[in-house]
User: Which sequence fits this backbone?
């Protein structure tokens, strides 16, 4: 398995897609029930393959990933060749993960306690694995509003 198995909730929301996936392998509903009952290891493999296919499709479309922790915010823009990251670091005890902390940042962008950094990172051999790793570390796929805002602000 290349990525991670989908959760039960994710499988439930992708129920029709999973049926279509099984159909592409000429597995009927009755055959799937038999596989689950008599060959659980094969069923597990099918769930893993489907999960990887879903993740691959999602990761191919990802353009922005955000990771916000109490003192730092990392905003990633992914493109074909590399990732551009904008990092916002607070040098105080304000917590960016709270509404109050985020409001403080908005009102104090030019404060000496706010530091901006940016860099480009070339992908490894597998850019989707690089994106997935960011998500596994707490990153969230977004539409890029924060990245766009800060990119205009500092560039």
Assistant:
């Amino acid at each position: 398995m290349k990525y991670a198995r989908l959760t039960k909730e994710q499988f439930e929301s992708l129920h029709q897609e999973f049926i279509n996936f099984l159909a592409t392998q000429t597995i009927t509903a009755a055959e799937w029930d038999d596989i689950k009952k008599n060959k659980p290891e094969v069923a597990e493999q099918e769930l893993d393959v489907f999960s990887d296919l879903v993740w691959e499709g999602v990761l191919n479309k990802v353009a922005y990933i955000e990771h916000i922790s109490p003192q730092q915010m990392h905003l990633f823009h992914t493109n074909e060749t590399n990732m551009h990251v904008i990092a916002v670091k607070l040098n105080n005890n304000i917590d960016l993960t709270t509404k109050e902390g985020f409001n403080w940042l908005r009102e104090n962008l030019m404060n000496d306690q706010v530091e901006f950094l940016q860099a480009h990172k070339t992908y490894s051999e597998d850019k989707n694995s690089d994106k997935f790793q960011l998500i596994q570390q707490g990153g969230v796929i977004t539409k890029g509003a924060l990245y766009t805002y800060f990119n205009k602000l500092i560039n």
